[in-house]
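ugh finaly. both done.
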Amino acid sequence: MNLKNIFTEITEALDKLDQDREEILKISRLIVRDCSVAIKHIHRREFNQYQDKINNIIVTHEKLVSLVNKNTGVFFKYLKTPEQEYAEAISFFSIIMKKDLPTPKVLKINPLNYALGLADVVGELRRYVLDNIRKSQIDDLNEILESMDEIYTYLFSLDYPSGITQDLRHKTDQARNIIERTRGDVSISLQMNSLRECIESSVQDNTNKK
């Protein structure tokens, strides 16, 4: 038997797979970290820094996809988390800046991973809304809430077996709960602002009458 030669060939193939996997995991972690930083830049309105980070992510993502395509059957699952985070960062920025969302094809992201990222962006939008409420910046709250509702409506329309959509349904259910809590917060904030304006107007009227 020529088992030695056979297992030499098998070992070489598995070594190459292992090397590629380690590189994929390294790049994946880098993308996830950069996406987290990019989202923080959005919250801080540091848009130039955000764009610089996104430019880096685009290049890194291309490297990741190239490595995955060497053996898609083995490595495809490793695209899920980084592409999900990438879609979330891009979508969050687009909504805040009132721009059209780029499509999965434009971003070269797997469509399901894109949808998962959209489900997660609802949480970032809630955080953005709460930050604005704390700063008494309420002008865009209803518009952001409408964007959250629209995302949920489209996600809910993806009625496919979980074997295809993975954990999308669970994320969609979480998004619905987040939206309902945010709707309550926005409603209270707008009511409080209206009450404050009425009190201030009344005080001003009384002052003018004196």
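ok and the 2nd:
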Amino acid sequence: MADKKKKKLPPEAQKYQSFEQKREVKRPVLINCIKAFFVGGFICFIGQLISTFYMYFFDFTEQTVANPTVATLIFITMLLTGFGVYDRIGQFAGAGSAVPVTGFGNAVVSAAIEHRSEGFVLGVGGNMFKLAGSVIVFGVFSAFVIALIKTILIQWGGL
């Protein structure tokens, strides 16, 4: 805690803050970063394998393989979340499992599983799309802004 804020606290709260700082467990930041790096990299490696599989067996091109690859990764994540496996991966890897697109699939399905007792429409559907809806809206808005900027640049710069 900053010294200025600490001085504003009553003496008992200051004692408690110092007591808490002594007892706080130090997190192994370097090890956590290494775990996140390798697990996130492995997830991306699996995505590359899926892309290569689709290009080789289903005649996709490098431009058209992205959407089925992302959909497959999200589907696999949803299955693993449903069986409770992805939660253990998340416990181990932290941000390494949350940053790739698989983290999005896990968040959506976790919200659906958590609120299934409230019913399919209000529980599962409503809570599942609290996260997904905001991500979709942000994605559509961002795409609109980028397209607008590109259009303006093409009109002015002849790109």
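summary for the 2nd one i guess: The mean pLDDT is 83.
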